[in-house]
Amino acid sequence: MSSSKADVVVLGGGLIGLATAYELAKRGREVTVLERHEAGGDQSRHALGFLSLVVKGAAKARLSARAVEQWAALPGELEADFELRRGGELAVATDAAAFQRLRDWSAGAAASGIDARVVDPDEIAKLVPGFRRPTPGGVLVAAAGHAEPLKAPLAYAAAARRRGVTIREHCPATAIEVVDGRIAGVRTAAGPIAARTVVCATGAANTRVLRTVGVRLPTVVVRGLALETAPLPAVTEVATMVGGLAFRQRPGGTLYVSYITRGIHDLTLDSFRFMREFLPSRNRSSLARVRLNDTLARDVWRSLAHRSGRTPAIDPRPLVRLRSPRGVVEESVRIMESLSPAFAGLEVRRDWSEAIDVTPDDLPVLGPVATVEGLIVASGFSGHGFTLGPLAGRLVAELVVDGRASEDLHPLRLARFAEGDFTPSGARL
């Protein structure tokens, strides 16, 4: 068994964890990242790749605008090509009520630093050639875009290593060490690592990880589904949302498609632990499609095994099995083919599920934990972790080094749930 030390240990080697490690190393900190798979190989690479600005809530809109600005400089800073495209983001309304919500959102977007404008059906048909679904109109945000989620985390990993970050792959933490209410380090199967700061960025596992040190983080896991088609001739560079369906075309011609309102929440013990926070939310992405299956039984068994000491404090195994929701692939293809003749005869090359950690108000938790000195949480990004990842990494680094962040993180504090100071999320735009 070996022993080592670091200024900061980052739990989770996805986009957010790697961005955090890179930003900390830029500021002179010695950082170790612990990842249970390969760097960038878990939730991050399963994202759709939208750099989205059409989001609900002033806090998320403001942070998204800052994040997209940061994305624009990343290819040069990280010395990598991850297919960044600034073709804009188009949200198309499918009925008059949805169009009014988009118009209302557009009118207030400028206050968050977002330049959005309303577009009519004729302009939509130019942005997505041949668009033929009936629509009263939509909203276009020219500054938004998309990037490749298979490549962006790896670009951060390479840049972090160049700055001296140690990335331990296939090496999850088995426990967080807390002494007298303060972080002392972490334990792994390869030995302990002494540290005064731990950043918890393990995505869908964050709630389980934090529970081991007595911290309550109300999130649930949603299974989303995405698919990739065979290459098509160039259709559009605009990242597009039509109702609950989102799609973008990659530089090589393939389409990434996700039915974002067809997520499934498999019941676990957390579903009951956090019922008080989630039931008022009416959050369609997390609670509308609930499934009772063997996930709950496995969660009960693992909870009992942990209490009896048969498993480590932090169990690195994923709880939710990412099975593709039945019928969603076929439904997604049917809708895509109905949108434009350009999408006729789509051939699905692959499909996959993604684990999405969702909070009751759809806002992330970003900041220190009051009850454990030296513990910082970056979690619950509710489907917007890819957009916000680089900014989250920078803000966490600022918290560690400067003691404060350059953005207002008060709406994102963990304590808001215990205080009841949050707005339950309703239907999406």
Overall, the morphology is globular
Mean of pLDDT: 93
CATH fold node name: FAD/NAD(P)-binding domain
Number of strands: 22
The helix fraction, in percent, is 25-40%
**Biggest sheet strand line-up:** 6-7-5-15-16-17-14-20
> CATH architecture, please?
3-Layer(bba) Sandwich
Q: What Rg is obtained from the alpha carbons, in whole angstroms? A: 21 Å
Q: State the major sheet.
A: 8 strands, mixed
Structural class: alpha/beta
Relative strand content: 15-25%
The number of helices is 13
**Which CATH class applies here?**
Alpha Beta
CATH superfamily: FAD/NAD(P)-binding domain
C-alpha end-to-end distance? 52 Å
Describe the 3D structure.
This protein has an 8-stranded mixed sheet with strand order 6-7-5-15-16-17-14-20, with helices on both faces. It is of the alpha/beta class and 429 residues long. The model is unreliable at 283-287 (pLDDT under 50). It has one domain (4-419): FAD/NAD(P)-binding domain (3-Layer(bba) Sandwich). Strand 2, helix 1 and strand 3 form a beta-alpha-beta unit. Helices cover 31% and strands 24% of the residues.
